[in-house]
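# nightly structure sweep
# worker-07 picked up a monomer target from the shared queue
# config: single-sequence mode, recycle default, output format = C-alpha cells
# input follows
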Amino acid sequence: PDNVLVGDDGRVRVVDFGAFDPFGEGGENDEAIGDVLDGSASTIWRSERYQDPLSLVKPGVGLRFQVSGAPSAVQLVGLTSGTEFAIYWAQDPPNEIDGWERALSETAESSTTLFPLPRREGGHWLLWMTDFPQQPDGSYYGELGEVRFTP
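# output follows
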C-alpha cells in the first residue's frame, strides 16, 4: 500500500489502509481493500455477506485509510445504494469506534458521491458502514469501487 496516489496533484496520499472490525473477527474481505485505491471503479471491494441486516449482527464494519496531507473531500465511487455509513477521523486509530471523531453520516443514494471533510492534517479516515441493503439472493452486503481523497 505504500505511496498509493489518490489526489490528482499528489498532495494527498493514502499511506496505509485496512479493515476496521472491532465487533467481528478483525477483518472484512481484507485482500480486496486495495481495489478501492487502484484507480479503477471496475475492481471492487465487497463486504462479507450477512444473512440478517448488519445492524442486527454488529454495530458496523469499516475501512481505514491513513493519509498524508489534508483532504478537503472524499469521493466514494460505486458504494451500494442504500448503504448507511459515517465518515470518522482520528490522529491515531483507536481500537473501538467510540474513540473516533465523526465527520458526517449519510445513506448512499447514487453511484458516485463527493463528501466534504473537515480540515484535518494526516491521520486516519474511517468509512464506517452500519447497514447494507438486502440483495436479490436475500443476503445483505455492500460494494465499493473507489475511495478518492481530494486536496
